[in-house]
Amino acid sequence: MQLKLANHYSQDISSSKNDKAIFLFLGLALWVFIPILGIFPLIFFIHLNQKSKSKLNVLVSLLVIFTITIFVSSADVISDLAVYVDNYSKLNSKTPLEISGALGLECLLWIASYPIYILSNGSNYAFIFFWSFFANAVTFFVIAKGFSPRNYGLLLLFIVSNPIYIGFQGFLVRQYFATLIFLIAVINIDRKPVMWGLYLLSLLAHLANLIYLPILLLYDKVRLLGNKVVVVLMVALGVALPFSNTLVVNLSERVAGLLPGDYSMLIVGKTAYYAKERVNESSFIVPLVEHLLILIIIFVFVKNQKFKTAQERLIYFLYPVFYILMYLGKDIDMFSNRVAFLLFPFGGLFYYFAIDHKWKIFKMPILVLIFTLKIMYFNYYLYDISLGKSEFHYLNDQVYSSTIVDYIEMAIDNFTEDVKIKEKPTRSLS
Question: Cα 167 to chain center, whole Å?
């Protein structure tokens, strides 16, 4: 009997080694020719290679991080990114506090960017490259591991396979930065002084993070969201009562009245600008459907919904609230993206509940199906870029024909020759 068990264990170890070797080999082969697709088998290798303090996992993670970073930083400098790069260039003549606008409250990004400006001699590309690298490194080494120490590789697959994770990273730099700090605060939620310190720091990056304050104060006190019926009714209400443009503008004017003059004018102006813009309905369909699916999985398939840790309870409390906000503002351009920002680039984070908890039935088949659909959608996103149909352009639209050599050459060229603003929007950001 002992001999049979030993043989069975030996076979499992051998099979596991073979699986790891296959995904590492296939991942590296694909990575050489189409780097942005090769990252996915490499991330799955990280999941399979569950060894504590694995140097190989760190090396593969860095490979993936640099690949995403070079991809993101190859974007044309337009839209919000153009405004951030323009503000960054002003560090030559203005202080970070002056660039950040009224009262200098949202100054953290510019304070942190000042050393980049000095060390790179004002390189625009260094600014874009650094903040993309920072976002990816924190996501891989801090956030994913902080939420799921054992299955962080699998969680990363669901986070990174979301095109918005890449899309927002290069353009909504300041709010992305603020959201990363907030997520680090959530990871440290059991250490209250650290958590509150990090949360206050995130406000210095972007005041939009004020929306998380009621969540942090109420997640352990309000029990209503633990009731499935209440959550279903709330979601149904969000679906039935989308905001109107006029309502959002009026609401922004009321909120702006409570803030300093410069911020008040900025909020009203930006809200009015976005309210006039036409909404691309297709950009909301996938996130809305995906998050509804995750909610269904949590409520129907996950066995134990009595989440024990404070971290779990907070994101479980936050999730339906933000889903409702996301749906309410779907008819206002950029409203949902800004108010429910967390659900867009970091929507994959909420698969944590599906990955780390036991299901009643069908766990593996459903997760495999969802991930397959996500990869198909990610490939469609790349295909759209390759045809030049995307609003944002990466790798000069040569996303399938660019090899790892092209990635490296492009990064070297951009560091050497720098990049310039291609098109700056009329609206302003601070």
Answer: 9
* Cβ pair 235, 323 in contact under 8 A: yes
321 in Cβ contact with 225 (< 8 Å): yes
The structure tokens 């509940």 sit at: 353
Measured over the CA atoms of residue 301, residue 220, residue 179 and residue 27, the dihedral's sign is negative
> Per mean pLDDT, which range of 140-149, 258-267, 308-317, 415-424 is the poorest?
258-267
Per-residue b or e along 388-421, where b marks 16 or more CB atoms closer than 10 Å to that residue's CB: eebeebbbebebeebebebbeebbeebeeeebee
SS3 425: coil
Contact 51, 400 (CB under 8 A): no
Q: How far apart are CA 45 and CA 41, in angstroms?
A: 6
**Using CA atoms in the order 178, 140, 301, 215, what is the torsion angle rounded to 10 degrees?**
-20
- What backbone phi and psi angles, to 5 degrees, belong to 156? -60, -35
pLDDT in tens, 118-150: 999 999 999 999 999 999 999 999 999 999 988
| CA distance linking residue 319 with residue 344, whole number of Å | 12
Query: Identity (one letter) of the amino acid at 209?
Result: N
How many C-beta neighbours within 10 Å does residue 248 have?
Answer: 20
